[in-house]
Amino acid sequence: MGIVTKLNFVNFSNDFNNSKIVIFQKNVATSYDELAIAWKTIENCGVGSTHPFDYPWDISVNAIDSFGNHTRKLLAAPGEAFEIKLGRSGYILVPSHTPAACSQEVEVLNTLARGSIYVGVYRNNKLIALKNNIVPKEKAVFRFNPSIWIGVASDIEQGQEINSAIFSSSNTEIPLLGIAEADIEMRGGGAGLTSYPYSFNLTNVCYL
Prior knowledge:
Elements: E1 4-11, E2 20-24, E3 40-42, E4 50-56, E5 59-64, E6 74-76, E7 81-87, E8 90-95, E9 106-110, E10 117-123, E11 126-134, E12 139-142, E13 147-153, E14 167-175, E15 179-189, E16 196-207
């Protein structure tokens, strides 16, 4: 078991619309604006209530083939590379003999003769990133900053891609490097002239 940061969401807002909170990360290894995945959602957390959750620093990867089969998940550290290949009983995911091209990235190469794959990345066994249609001889590349993004959204479920059209502009990057425990306080909201934009801030921080 690797390092785990313990977080506690605290609703100090003026929101009485029972808004849904969405937490996600961004794959910064891509050169284009890739859709993020809703890693965690917080629902029905009333004003004055809290919601504790863990952020494990370990991630794992797997591959999904065109038949809907999922390979087993493998722990993946920055700098490691993996290959999807045809084994004796079907497709398998195995560590590569060569490391990733960048020491901060995780790579998954499709070595199949034919057939595209999807590659998923998981944190705490929950999907946090997904690369679609990786064709033979191409690879999926992932790198995450030591931070999470948090915001208010609607019509989004855990594990779904976050469409920017339904995501609130009130989303904030929360840095987690070196943090053992912290509260994430949500403020703002409300109605009429007394309303303010939503804000999210780290408080009560304990460092590693």
